[in-house]
Amino acid sequence: MNTQQYTPGWLVCFAIVFSLLILNGCASKGYPPLSGEEGQVAAHDYLVGPGDSVSIMVWRNPEVSMSVPVRPDGKITTPLVEDLPASGKSASQLARDIEKALAKYIQDPIVTVIVTNFVGPYSEQIRVVGEAAKPQALPYRENMTVMDVMIAVGGITDFADGNRASVIRNIDGSQQQFGVRLEDLLRDGDISANVVMRPGDVVVIPESYF
Hints:
By secondary structure, this protein is an alpha+beta fold. About 25% of the residues lie in helices and about 20% in strands. It is elongated and about 65 Å long.
């Protein structure tokens, strides 16, 4: 008597889809890990960006000393200087440009610029997308680590697959993607997973399949 068992077609399809999901999850972990070498960044001057506030102090000229916001177009305006580009400059570079503009009205102006509210240019912001508690763009700070980033965004959600997270980084004009182990760092306290960030990094946190 032939006792060959029959396997329903839907069960076969389910097994195939399940296997593909598992393989896809494994493949997502195939990004090269982000090492300390990739995280090294040269000494970095903070660059002014839209949304920042800058305090402009002109020596012996308090009437033109003030705090002004950097407009969305990256420019600032003061009583004697209109539409001066500020975005992408360091505080000292901006001070020198203001001195040149004020030289038309003030003899030998000496200007100091202090950034009082930090956002930074878009190209240098750290962006966090996916299963973060509060996905957002953050201003880059010197020696910033992925732990600092996670604290700022409130960690990862219960639906996140933290160890499949990755960092997209621009290296010599080419975008490259590296794996980071957020689950090990945040929930197991593995400090070796706390990598250094670079200006412009994008942290991608995928959703867990299960």
